[in-house]
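#data-curation
PF: Archiving a pair of folding outputs for the training set. Convention for this channel: one message per protein, sequence first, structure tokens after, nothing in between. First:
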Amino acid sequence: MSETICDLTNRSCKPCEGGTPPLTRAQAGEMMQQLDDGWVLAEDASYIEREFKFKGFAKAVYTTNLACFLADQQGHHPDIRMGWGYCNVRFSTHAVNGLSENDFICAAKLDAMVKTQDG
């Protein structure tokens, strides 16, 4: 599993073009195996989501900032909700109305960044 995650973390997002179909539920399910267990695949396979939990506000802010930095770096922007003790990150690809490989690349990169932050 770690080799595959490494593969995703070493890749970069590609610009999405119209007319590209979203990943099927089966394809998304296969890609989920490459992510941390904290990620959840939506029932309709339209997004992946992870809630990071903390014992305070600061780490939630730091994780939100990591997700924002990653989004800016990759040109692929998640929906983020945060508050005291949590940061919720949801990836989907609006251009395809569902999931693309970019979502999984960003999720794997975010996982790696959070693990580095945790020490």
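PF: Second:
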Amino acid sequence: MRMPTMMPGEQVRADLTSSPRVMVFPVIELVATTGLLWMAIGFLDSPASPFPDQLRNLFVVAWMLAVLLRFVVPLVRARRRRFIVTNRRVIARQAQLRGRVDSIPFADIHSVRRRKGGLSVAILGQPAPLFYPEVPKSRRVEEMINRSLPPRLYR
């Protein structure tokens, strides 16, 4: 799903995506997997190896699948996660490949709280708040949104 376009007069105050730190474990896993599988492939390539060449090709395919599933997919998901605060609304895109995009006007937001490294956005009329995990600089974003909310008597 595409990100909504900005309305006339709308200004972006914060445009955040996942930090590079979320890729530390996938990079370590990629290095370990590559090392182990290519050592096995090197053994299968040796002239003294009693195994057929098709087994080597199977290991190369297994390595490619491991790289795709354990590194490329998490990288794409991490880069797709986006959290934008404008002067009128909050726009949030989930990390999935076809993640939904939430566009929440400030008038519909009751409050915003930080929780477990993410933001919990309470929306008027909704029984439970929306939770956005791993929002970078969540303390500053929480303060920014709460300052932008319209004043209410019952808050």
